[in-house]
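ARCHIVE CARD
Drawer: 12
Card no.: 0347
Subject: one protein chain, sequence and derived structure
Cross-reference: see card 0346
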Amino acid sequence: MLTERFGFVAQLQTKVANVYALVPVKGGPRLKAAVSKDQWRAGGVMNGGIFRGRIVLHNLTMAGLAEALARQVGRPVVDQTGLSGAFDINLKWTPIEAAPPAPADNGPSIFTAVQEQLGLRLQTAKAPIELLVIKNVNRPSDN
């Protein structure tokens, strides 16, 4: 329907781009293996999610964490941790676009938080990523 009505043509292309590589810090990651939902709730976290300045997620793979971080840093994040399995993530930082916080509330940047709280690091790198390239799109034709 998109092709017929809008002349829409697109294709996937692979391109080398600037990314962040998610890697362990020296001394290794500080991650908590995923626990059962009941144990997770007993720890005081009822609902997880991605919030402004916080990621609280249960049973997350490193690929999933890379995807969540990419949305926060505005650049693709590639998992290069070599870690398998699932983890419970509770990451807190001060968003860049936030108004200057009160001195007592001044938290770390997302880059510092990832390093200090998870034992991982976001380092700049180049890597191949898939992009959806739109080749053509027209105004819709009359019905």
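Annotation on reverse: The chain has four helices and seven strands. The chain has a mean pLDDT of 86.
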